[in-house]
Specification:
The chain is an all-alpha fold and 329 residues long. It is 69% helix and 0% strand. The chain contains 15 helices and no strands. α4 runs antiparallel to α5, α4 crosses α6 and α7 packs antiparallel against α8. The longest helix has 25 residues. It is globular, with a radius of gyration of 20 Å. 43% of the residues are buried.
Length: 329
């Protein structure tokens, strides 16, 4: 079974990014003059990324110190939102209220002095003039996990991925800056696809974990086209290698299509690497290449994304870095 890959979502997502670049109302944070508290705030962000974002943390080590701490503040801002939504012991209404409060704190001109992540993020937003609409688009994307467990089509999924991942790439572009000869607007479509590619990799890696949490991100029309049902996304199902016969074959064909499309997104996004300023290019290239390696791991384990979580070891990441550097030097 095959589905024609038609990127009908591109224009919609590009319009969202362009709208964010030119907001009707500006919200510029006020300067934070307490240097000691500010240092504590950035240290807190570094601790958060070290604990929760191993690949991202490794990639940020390739950045100059000032840029590195700003990217880590961006990660911490995103992580706070994710942690709120992924709190299984709290009612949906409670999480929605907390996320709304974080939305206000993270885009306000004067964040509360007790919130270290909000302080670091406000300082970063001010220093790099990050459009607050990107922040709101990200939180809107994360908020979908509170009430939406299925996605009808890839176009629907792409809109979600833009909110939770492409916005991160677009804010990274503002922090790292563009290379001579390129403009931010030229880089937008490629950066959007980079975010989509990274998020789709996350989705393919976490099929089993997400299914156990009651979420299925894989496009429903594509699952239906290949004859894959919910029973195939649990331990012992076709996706776990426990199925047999036609269902298992359909799962492999389905996943081959998903991985191929994901790799196509990486290829289409790759030109954005050279559009980033030179001192941040290696970091972005490493992040993309290390995530692509997860696809290799998925394939090498017979597309079993239920019994195990695909990953690349620390040594596997480190040994790839020289090749990534050579390719992008």
């Amino acid at each position: 079974m095959a589905i024609t890959y038609t990127p009908d979502w591109e224009g919609h997502l590009l319009a969202m990014a362009q709208e964010a670049l030119h907001p009707a109302v500006l919200r510029t944070p006020v300067p934070i003059n307490d240097e000691i508290k500010l240092q504590r705030a950035y240290t807190e962000c570094a601790a958060i990324i070290a604990a929760h974002g191993k690949t991202f943390n490794l990639a940020t080590r390739l950045l100059p110190p000032t840029t590195r701490r700003a990217i880590r503040a961006l990660y911490a801002f995103c992580r706070v939102a994710d942690n709120i939504v992924d709190s299984p012991d709290e009612a949906v209404e409670v999480r929605a209220t907390r996320l709304a409060a974080w939305r206000e704190e993270s885009v306000t001109a004067s964040p509360p002095p007790h919130d270290l992540v909000a302080l670091a993020w406000a300082d970063t937003r001010r220093h790099y003039d990050i459009p607050y609409t990107y922040c709101e688009q990200l939180i809107d994307g994360v908020a979908r996990d509170l009430h939406q467990q299925r996605y009808a089509s890839f176009a629907d999924l792409a809109t979600y991925a833009y909110g939770v991942a492409s916005t991160v790439g677009l804010m990274m572009l503002r922090i790292i800056g563009t290379a001579p000869g390129y403009t931010e607007e030229q880089a937008l479509p490629y950066t959007i696809k980079m975010g989509l590619a990274l998020q789709i990799t996350n989705i393919l890696r976490d099929v089993g974990e997400d299914r156990r949490a009651g979420r299925v991100y894989l496009p429903a029309n594509e699952l239906q086209a290949w004859g894959i049902g919910d029973q195939d996304l649990v331990v012992g199902g076709a996706s776990a290698g426990g199925g047999s016969g036609p269902t298992k074959g359909r799962w492999h064909d389905f996943m081959r299509f998903q991985v191929a499309r994901n790799r196509a997104l990486y290829r289409e996004a790759w030109p954005c690497i050279k559009m980033f300023a030179q001192d941040g290019r290696f970091c972005v290239a490493a992040m993309c290449a290390l995530y692509q390696a997860i696809l290799d791991d998925i394939e090498s384990h017979n597309y079993d994304v239920i019994n195990r979580r695909a990953h690349v070891s620390t040594w596997g990441k480190l040994r790839r870095l020289p090749g990534i550097w050579w390719q992008n030097r």
